[in-house]
Every structure is written in C-alpha cells, then in structure tokens.
Description:
heterodimer; A: alpha+beta; Aldehyde Ferredoxin Oxidoreductase,  A, domain 1; Aldehyde Ferredoxin Oxidoreductase Protein, subunit A, domain 2; Aldehyde Ferredoxin Oxidoreductase Protein, subunit A, domain 3; 3 domains; six-stranded mixed beta sheet; 12% strand; B: Ubiquitin-like (UB roll); five-stranded mixed beta sheet; two-stranded antiparallel sheet; globular
Amino acid sequence: MAKNSYAGKILRVDLTTGAITTEELGSEYIDLFLGGRGIASKILYEEVPPEVEPFDPANRLIFSPGALIGTGVPAASRTTVAARSPLTNMHGDGHSGASWGAELKRAGYDVLIFQGKAERPVYLYIDNDTVEIRDAAHLRGQFTSGVHSWARKTFGPDVCTVSIGPAGENLVRLAGVYHNGADKGVSARCGLGAVMGSKNLKAIVTRGTGDIGVADIAALKAAYKDYLDTIAVDPYVPPATKYGTCRFMGHRVKFGIHGAENWRYGAYPWETLDPEIFRSDYQVKAGACLACPVRCRRDYRVRTGPYAGVTAKLEWETIARSMTCGVTNPEAVIAWSNQCNHYGLDTEGTGDTIAFAMECFENGILTEKETEGLVLEFGNEAAWLEMTRRIALRQGELANILAEGTKRAAEKIGRGSERFAMHVKGGEMTAGDPRGMPVRAVSYATSTRGSDHLRSNPYIEEIMRPEEALQWFGTEEAADIKHGVRGKGKMLKFSEDFVTIGDILGLCKFAYYRSATFPYLYRKGVHLATRFYNACTGRDLSEEEMLMAGERAFNVEKAYNTRCGATRADDVIPRRFFEEPLLGGGPSGGAVVDLEKFDAILTEYYEDRRWDPDTGLPTRAGLERLGLNAIADDLEARGKLPVSDCGKVE
Amino acid sequence: MSEQRRAVNLSVHLYPPLNSAAGSDRVQIALDAPATVGDALEALVARYGAEMRRYLYGDGDTVVPAWTAFVNDVPVQLNRDEALQTPVSDGDELALILNLAGG
C-alpha cells in the first residue's frame, strides 16, 4: 500500500519525437502547489512562455488530477486540464469530474504532460507502466461517445478515456476535453479540446490498477463523518440531490437575472424549463461523480416528438445558455446538450457565440446570405441546432468564423457587431446576469480564465450575515448585496482563493464551495478540506496555509496573464452591463452595473491582493510573500512589474 | 374589529427544500395582525415541524442567511435580524427561496 496519496511521478509525452519519460514529482511541486490546478498552473508558467502561441506544438497540454482524487474523500473527483488557451490567449484550464483522473493516479502518475505535435492522429495508451503512442486514424471524426465505446470494446470495460470530438479536431476554439465519453464530464472552458486537436491527439485510454494511499485512515474517517454531519444540516444539499443543477432556475427566476437573448433580458419566460419538469418528464438517471454523496448528476431522455430518443447529461449552465439563445423548449435543450457533448463543444461558449450571431442577425449585420439560409433568430431552435453542428465542423464561412469564439468573430465580422460580443478576456459569459450585484460583476472581470462564475464564489455576499462580514472583511456593508461597496473587494479575493483550493484538491465546488451559510461554507471548503488533505498525504498544513495555496495558484495564473500582456484594462465586463438597463422587468429590471462601484471594488480587490491598483500588475512583495520569487524575477525581467517595484515603465 | 384581531392570510410559495418539508410548493397560512415575515417563518415551523426548522434555521437559532423572502416579488434578504420584522399584509404572496446559484 502506498504511504500517501501521491504517486510521485510526472508522465511526459513528446508527440513530436515520440519520447515518453517519467520524472519525479518532487517537493518543488508538492510543497507549495499541492496538486490539480496548483501544479498545472506552475508547469504552464514554467514551460509555456508568452512567445509560444496556443496552437504552437511547444504549448503544453497538462492533465493534473486533484490531490485527493481516488482516496475515498467525498466528492474528490475533479481533474484539471490546462494549456495556453486559444480562446483567451492567456492561462487556460478546465475541470471535470468522472473517474479518468483517479485512473491515471492508479496507473502511477500524478500529472500527465503533452508537448509537441504528432504527424498524424494518435491516441495515448496507458496501462499502468505500459505507455504507448498509437495510431488513431480509425478514430478520426468520431464523436466523444464513439471513442469511449471503442476503447471499452477494444480494451475492456474497466478503461477510462479522455477524448475530443470533431470540434477539437477542427480546432474550434470552443471545444472541450471530454472524460469517459459524452455524458460523464468535460473540461469545457478555454478551448482546450482545440489544443488537444492541434497536437493530433484524439484520445487517452487509461487503465490503472495500483493503490492510491492514505497516510492516516482514522483521520480520514473522522473528517468524513464531520463532512456528512455538515451536509446533513446544510439546506443547500437537498435541492441538489433532488434536482441536480437544474435547481438553480429558482434563483434566476426570483432575482430576474437570466441573461436571456444575449444578455439583454433578466426576466424571461422560464416555466417550460422548470426543474420539476426536467425531473418528472425527462430524467432517466440520477447519479454522482466519483465518491460524491451530494449526487447532482442527471441524465435526461426525450420520449416523444422530433427529438424522441435523444439522451443527454445536462447541467444548469446548458439550460441558461439555451435561454441566452432564446430557446425555452426543454426537449430542444436536451437535444442541444447531446449535440454539444458528442461533437465535443463547450455549451457555454457555443451558446453565447450563437447568441452573439443571433443579435447580429436581428440587427441586419448578418443576413440569410451569410447564414446560408438559416433564419438565425432568437428562439429558432432548428437554426440554433444546425449552427451548432456547422460550428463543430467549421462548415460554411460564417460557422468557420463563429468557431473562433465570440471575440474573434466580432473582430472579423466588424460593422458594429463588437457591441454585441459578450465576453471577458475572450472567454464567453457564464451564469447569471451581474447587473445589480456588484461582487458578481467584478468576479466575472477578475477571473483568470475569462468570465467565470466558478473561479470564485460570486454568491458569497448572498449568504453572509453582517456580523460575519465585519469579522472577515472589515465591514458589515460587505453583506449588503445591492448597496454595499466596502469590503467587497476583500470578499472577492477571499472567495477566489477559497474555491481555488477545490480545484487544487479535486473537490467539487457544489459539494464543498457552495453552502447556505458562511460557517458551513468555511467548514467544508477550508477546515474539512485541510483535514482531508493532511489525512491523505501525511502533511500538516494549517488552514491558513491551505488558503495561501489557493492564493498562490491564483497569483501564478495572474502572473501568466500579466506576462501575456493583461493589465487592469482586461479586468472588465462588457459595456452592455454598464450602459444598457436589464430588460424584461422583474426584481432586477432596469438595473445596470454602477461603474463607480465596480471600480471601487476592483481597487480594493487589487489592494487586498497586493497588486498595483493603477495597473493591475502583481507586485514583487505580493509574489514573494507567496514564495513566488522566481516569477517576480521573470516578470521584472520582462518589464511586467509596476514602476514602483522595478523602476521600469510598463 | 380591531387591527390586532384581524387575520393576515398569506399565500406562501415554498422553493426547495422547503416544499419537501411541507409536501407542497404552495401553502396558505393565517397569522394574527400585525404580522411580519418572521411570524410567517415561525408559523411554518409550527405547522411542519423539525424538517422545516432545520431548513430554515440550520443547526442554529438564526435564520439561514441564504434564504430570501419575496413579499409580492419584493426581495427581503434574511441575513439580518431586522429583516424578519418586515410587515406582511392580508392577501400578500410570500415566496421563500434559497439565494443559491452555483453552476
């Protein structure tokens, strides 16, 4: 039995030379970066300088399972995939549940790094110590589901896979990396499937039969019991178990923040997408990711009508982005999720990009000539599905442009379309509309991988009591959702560091980093996470050190983006949110994001992060406090530290 | 009849997981005037018992702050004790929803 949960090895595959090597996962990785997103961020920073473009063979594709995957820790299921993103041109990562990450660990590897580019399509075969690059010509053009079925038929039902669909092969910048076929999990954001495609890597087939050790089983059991006791009283959990992520509909309805029709409407007809309808009319399976007691995975099937027989794993964000395209037919939503999952697309990015095109169509910037006959109106589900297919295949001139993502598409289309392009740093918008909710607005801006609700906890202000806000962020005002300003920058910084812990350890955000109260949230996300980590690894980190590990990883990503040219000017949300009142009436009707408040929160956030508030650049003092001295040196050498730090003009 | 003796009838829309505790998404409750949001919560606990209490109060004595009450669609964030004093009137609709989004 292994002594702790680290396998102790990095597996490196050079697809250009065919070299397959292993390296020790030394203390330089473990001590400060722990696992998952922490280690992936460090490797990406060290091995992919800004001179390396996303589709350059020198870009890395890094698979880094969370540090606790496979240990039996509840909901420890998440694997980080990282590369320089072809969507944002900055740090990129995506995270997925499913069991592939644990399989890699059982095969004996904590991290898998790809570099170079194969001459022809290949897949990587891993069976414990046997690692081979094999021809994948027969898999060319296959759906993610097809690849997984082929692998299990060929190598046995116990193998796990990651793969890309046609979208990734076609270098669609909205392509994800799919784990165990179409319906188990996807590292969706940042176009990482296109990076995999650029390397001619179609899939990774993995079997691991080794042990993943636990240093102190008694301590793990004790923490496990406390975790179960906590979720037993947290009101957040029962709706998750009953409805899956579809449950978030109620929140959007009551706050009126749908972001429908390309982020114009806050209130929107939603009744056909009621979570109860999905549960009663379409649900065929209620399941869980690896070792998760919350169990919010859901599979749905359409039984009758034009989409009869279609099944799909479906998450709330897929429903939300359907509404962004004006589609409210649940059967079309299931069909669309099925389509994206099989072609290997990110539903969030794809939905927003099509919504952008729909608004262009509505305003005459695009016509049926450009759409090649599609009436690309909001709510036209047939056009929506067809354009999705075309994007995956880059079929036709317009689809080929949209396959580049919203930002690049707007730049290519021009003619005023830029004002309809809803993205942050090139990453399409996600989650709910930020108008009227200041922390949410700023959190979308500061995310290191483009607009993102999972990069922080943009809902944290909604669960805090004033006395808790005073204790943690210096003022009761931070707990006031609509009117507060002071303390919210500190709150955002905390929540970013906090949820990064989950990505480092592989803990699901819905099982640890969302709760109905701040005490439950902290108990799960820091206290229990630290106990689990120490029990599994034999280390003795304090809760403060665990939070600092989250802060460190976030700073590495910030430094990466800084090195790619990002400044404060990139930490901004689309103008629409500042200038156009939210339509549709409802509780948030007429709201805009107050620019003055936005700037004040952002400035406080930078100050609390020890970043320069004028430029948004990291400072030497801030980086060295986290042990990131080498990154400070690198940024200084590149002229990317603030003037006050090095005397150089940015 | 004095104001104090009049009944305040509320239509209450219960979002998950409160609907599980009540066995219904919508219930009617009657309170003595003058009535508040806090009175409505106590009436729900009195009628539906321990499960309702656990969802509304967790393992403590204060309302779980993630609950928001909507009185005729006007939100009242229940993370402050004084919010429980928000008045409700006869014929009002009260909705209770967890402020929780996530993914």
